[in-house]
Design brief:
The protein has helices at residues 3-24, 41-64, 69-72, 75-87, 97-117, 143-168; strands spanning 126-129, 139-142. With 170 residues, the chain is mainly α. A two-stranded antiparallel sheet has the order 1-2. Helix 2 runs antiparallel to helix 6 (143-168). It is globular.
C-alpha cells in the first residue's frame, strides 16, 4: 500500500470510528463531564468535528504559505486559538447527533478532496510547529504527518469518551 492509499485508509478509519462512537453515545450522555473538567462529552465530540477542518487549513498553509507559518504559529496566536477553542465549550449549545454527523462529514470530505489533489512531493513539505500550539505536533510537521494526525487525534478522544461512558453507563 502506498502513502496516498495509507492516508486514505486512515481518514476513512477515523470517519468510521467517529460514526461508531457517535452511535454508541446516547445524547443524554452529552452533558456528562469528560476527562477534561472544562468539557462535557458533547464538547469533546464537537471538538473532534473541528479537527478535520483545522488540519485542512494547516495543510493548506504548509502547502501555499510555509513562510507565513512561523509568523502565525506563535505564543500569541496559540493563546487566541485556545481561547476560541474554549469558547466552543462550557456553554449551552445545541449539540446533537445530526449536527455532529454533518460537521464531521464536511471536514472529512475536505480532507479527502485535498488528499486526492496532492502531488507526491507535497507530502514532505514541512514547517516547525511550536509546542505551545499543539504539543502532540511539536517539532517538524509535514503535510503527511498532519494527515496521519487525523486518526491519532480521533483515537485519543475516543479513548477518553469510552472511558467516561464505561463509568456513566454502568
Amino acid at each position: 500500500m502506498g502513502l496516498r492509499e495509507q492516508l486514505a485508509w486512515e481518514l476513512e478509519a477515523a470517519r468510521r470510528g467517529f460514526h461508531q462512537l457517535l452511535d454508541s453515545v446516547p445524547e443524554s450522555a452529552y452533558a456528562h463531564p469528560s476527562d477534561n473538567p472544562a468539557w462535557t462529552i458533547g464538547d469533546v465530540l464537537y471538538h473532534i468535528t473541528l479537527g478535520p477542518p483545522a488540519l485542512l487549513f494547516e495543510i493548506w498553509m504548509i502547502h501555499h504559505l510555509p513562510g507565513i507559518y512561523p509568523l502565525v504559529m506563535n505564543r500569541f496566536v496559540s493563546t487566541i486559538f485556545n481561547r476560541v477553542n474554549a469558547a466552543f465549550t462550557g456553554r449551552p449549545k445545541q449539540i446533537n447527533r445530526q449536527m455532529l454527523t454533518q460537521a464531521y462529514e464536511k471536514g472529512h470530505a475536505g480532507l479527502v478532496s485535498r488528499l486526492n489533489r496532492m502531488q507526491d512531493a507535497d507530502f514532505q513539505r514541512s514547517v516547525m510547529y511550536p509546542s505551545e500550539f499543539v504539543s502532540d505536533l511539536a517539532g517538524t510537521v509535514s503535510i503527511e504527518r498532519l494527515f496521519h494526525y487525523v486518526k491519532g487525534h480521533f483515537d485519543v478522544h475516543e479513548a477518553e469518551i469510552r472511558k467516561r461512558l464505561d463509568e456513566i453507563l454502568v
